[in-house]
Amino acid sequence: MSSRPPSFYYPAPRKQRFCSQCGTPITCLTPPDDNRVRAVCEACGAVHYQNPRNVVGVLATWEDKILLCRRAIQPRRNKWTLPAGFMELGETTAQGAMRETQEEAGARIELGALYTIIDVPHVDQVHFFYLGRALSDELFPGPESTEAGFYHPQDIPWNDLAFRTVATTLQHYVEDARVGIFPVRHYAIPMPLSE
Amino acid sequence: MSSRPPSFYYPAPRKQRFCSQCGTPITCLTPPDDNRVRAVCEACGAVHYQNPRNVVGVLATWEDKILLCRRAIQPRRNKWTLPAGFMELGETTAQGAMRETQEEAGARIELGALYTIIDVPHVDQVHFFYLGRALSDELFPGPESTEAGFYHPQDIPWNDLAFRTVATTLQHYVEDARVGIFPVRHYAIPMPLSE
Q1: Is the CB of residue A28 less than 8 Å away from at least one CB of chain B?
Q2: Which of A54, A73, A62 is nearest to A142 (CA)?
Q3: B101, B57 in Cβ contact below 8 A?
Q4: CB-closest option in A8, A35, A186 to B114
Q5: Is pTM beyond 0.90 here?
Q6: How far is A120 from chain B (nearest CA, A)?
Q7: How many Cβ atoms from other residues are within 10 Å of residue B192's Cβ?
Q8: Which of B4, B58, B68, B144 has its CA 20 to 30 A from that of A85?
Q9: What ipTM did this prediction achieve?
Q10: How do residues B118-165 score in pLDDT, each as one tens digit?
Q11: In angstroms, what CA-CA distances link A2 with A5, A9, A20, A35?
Q12: DSSP-assigned beta bridge partners for residue A132
């Protein structure tokens, strides 16, 4: 066949229209022994679940500066972020956080403790940020970043941060750095603004 | 049509055979700007991601006893567990943990702090257990439990626990209860045994 492949788009919408197992159009109903409406296949019987996704990232430092990346992609293109992304199958949150730091900033780091765990229910996500220490100040930003650098706390672009989970993690860090103790922090981002 | 509906099975397998958006058979390839093989649709262009799932539960106490449920369903039928299950869309980890405790034990509880966060990469899961305090010792086990009860630490059926994340959470709790301090604990379950 000589037809051109389509432009790919990602991710596929959450809403499922066809059964992933047999290709039959989906029915929405509450399966037996369940208590909420699911995408089910009345042809093959598959019940399709949707679950929240995890985003994993790192707040890495070099001396007293913090690693930030500027996003080359949507959402929040040109806004600043901590390196972070969706956790993949087969990895731990720590491995995912290391991988994202490598992919987005090209940074060599030593991972520290899990620092913030943040529920973001309106976008069906949980975010995890680790602390980390850069092993050098050389950075090699990947295709998802237009630039990456280490910034003094007073130079954090607070009005140009991409996500509230990034902003609150940085706020906690700057505050905790004053006393030098970084307790695990767990909280939820409230609904109104989009994340 | 008079055809009988099929027996439902859940969850649908992770492996996707047809596009959820247009029903075309899936192709496995690495999309542009990506670095791993995905299930993609060469007809409509949808790129389908799979991500780890979160399991959320509670270690709830009544006086000095711990709430345990005996599983009525596979996997690990008849084994004992803390009330826990898959996090659903639109909820926080805390809300999911409360819901599972209600569904599996019918317990009225006051939720406490997040206690264990456990990576279980070989089954593509992250488990979260909260501490909690039962508001009464009345229990109404749901269809996923054959029984539920409050057990003294010395009566925990260590050899009949359903999951290693449950066993390790209980171990930490019993140890931490001796000093009365329950720090957040984050760790990974190593690969070999199945979870």
Answers
A1: no
A2: A73
A3: yes
A4: A186
A5: yes
A6: 7
A7: 6
A8: B58
A9: 0.92
A10: 999 999 999 999 999 999 999 999 999 999 999 999 999 999 999 999
A11: 9, 21, 26, 47
A12: A60, A111
